[in-house]
Every structure is written in structure tokens, then in C-alpha cells.
Amino acid sequence: MRVLVYGLVGTNRGGIETFLLKMNKYMSSDTIFDYVVEGDKCIHENEINAKGGKIYFIHNRHQSPFKNIKDNKLLLKRLRKEYDVVYFNLSSLSWIKPIKIAIKEKYKVYIHSHNAEFIKANGSLLYRLINKYNKAKLAKLPVERLTCSQPATEFMFGDSSNVEMVYNAINVEDFKFNKEKRNSIKKELQIENSFVLGFVGRLQYQKNPLFLVDIFEKVRPFIPNAKMLIVGEGDMRNELQNKINERGFTNEMLLLGNRTDVKDLLNAFDLFVLPSYHEGLPYVAVEAQTSGLMCFLSDRITREVDITNNVRFLSIDTDASNWKEAIEKQLNVIQNNDRDSVFETIKNSNFNIKNEAKRLERLLGNEK
Q1: What is the pTM of this model?
Q2: What's the Cα-to-Cα distance from 261 to each of 20, 103, 200, 219, 340, rounded to whole Å?
């Protein structure tokens, strides 16, 4: 079965790109994702080719909306004999023209909601009105609905009936706690005797990175050997570094940039924090739990991410005193944590990609 997939951004590796590439990797060799990509380049080409996939490039809708529509019409008409299924992966409903074209060409259409809220860059009144209008239109279209969380369902579909949950699963074996790697990473970063708070994510508005400094400032007085590792890049990096410097934490809060060894770095953390303004269902919180970490997350994040009872949801509408209190309350538990204890729970769950990829494969093949 070949599936024509929309939603992968050729110049970026965010949550949707990670989801699609990893899911298809763990499906059978008979199921191949081929991608429609806006623009003229794709940094994921090697991964796609390794699975036997194809890439179809079309004009970017933001730069040339009319050319984009024309490209979609020609492409979907031309490929109709090669594909039965078109799989749209969306973070909003700002542009549903390709969906309507696919329906008109009589494809079986799947819509997968990956986000629970508007992103700041696209949160204007006009953008919201377009999304609201298209949401009402989508409710009447003959499509199959998939989601990553209940908030993502409400955001894109409203009504949760006839919506299938597909979990943001991971390869759990990659994130099993490893004491040797913990010691190695802590030695590499010269933090052997430190209590480590960790964050992984893009340094942009959605992730609320400046709040990390507020958390650390509250925690430091009762954990004098505390350090924070911040993994990721983004347009708020300089602003974050300036705030760190102003508060006097230049040597305690370390910006590591983008790393390809997140699964190893998690071993060096003692707890994980994610103060996001909104998420669909964050991969990294699942990865952190699989590594045996207690997680302190924004209460804007869906409760469905708590699969181990090691998650605490906290308000970000404060000065971070509540985060300090929650961490202080759990400090003894954290310091004596058996980080292998929850692994089997996650291994046997829908968050294990070896289970969930096969289930998505069956769904796209119209098998329950």
C-alpha cells in the first residue's frame, strides 16, 4: 500500500515530521509513505528514500497560492490510479483546498490533527476566522478523522465522535535508562556533582523558554548544586541567554543547542520540565518518562501524556513559586527514584512505536 502524505515540511524537523518518518519506518515494507512537499527541497530525502518513498514538489501556498492550487489539482488527478489514500497531517485548518481537491478526485481522505491551539505567528483574527470557517466546512466533508489528543480533537474537529486516537509513539528501547551513559554525559558536561533539571524543545514562544529561568531561580535556593540543561534552538535563544545572564546563571543554565543525542542526554537529567503554552501531545514528555524521569509540565498540556503517574501539571500564570513547591515536595522521591520501574508499562502501551505504527498502518488500510 502506498499512501500519499501531506503535512511534512521539507526544511524543518518538527513534531509532524518526526511522527511521519518514524511511524512509516516501523510499518511493514509493504506500506510506503510518499510525500507532497511545498517548495523545492527536502532535508528528509535520505530517510524517505531509505523506505522506498517518493517526494512530489509543489509551489508553496504562502508564496504562490494560485500556483499551489493548480499544482494540487494536476498532481492529484495524475496520481489517482497510483493511490487510493491521501493522508493530511495538519496543525490548523487555515488551508483545506487540497483536501477538497482530493475528495473531488474520489480518494479516501484521512485528516490527522497534531495541534491543540493556534501558534503565535498565525494567531491573528483573520487566521482564526478562516480556521473557524474551515472547521465548519470540514465537519460536513466525507473524511476519516485522526488525532493525537483530546485537545487536538476539540481544536480541529470539535465533536469527538468518529475520531480515532493515534498516539505519538516512540522507540522505547532507545530511551531506557542507562547508568553508564548517565555517568559519561555528566562527565562530558562537567556536571558530575550536580542535580540536573532538563528541558528539550524549540526555543520559541510556544515552548515558553523564558519561564525556565524563573523556575531555576526559585529552585536554586533549596538545591544549591542545581544546574539546568537546555536542549534546542530557536528564535528566542538570544533573549533566553540574555535573561540567564541578567539573573546571574550563566554557568548554571547551559544552552546546548540542537543535539542528536537527546536519548543519551535524558539519562543525565534528574527531572524534566516543559512549561509550554500549548502542545498537541509532546513526544519529549513520553521520552522523558520512558527514561524514568519525573516530569513537571505546564497545565496547558493534555493529561493524556501522563502514562506513568510521574507527571505533575502546573500553572504557568504565576511567578513559578508553584513549580518550586512541587519540585521541593517531590525532591526525596526524585533523588531515590528507580528509573527502570516504569519501562515495562510504556513498552506494553500504545506509546511503543512498534505497536502503534502497525495500528496506524491498519487504520490507513481501512482495517480496525
Answers
A1: 0.83
A2: 20, 41, 11, 26, 20
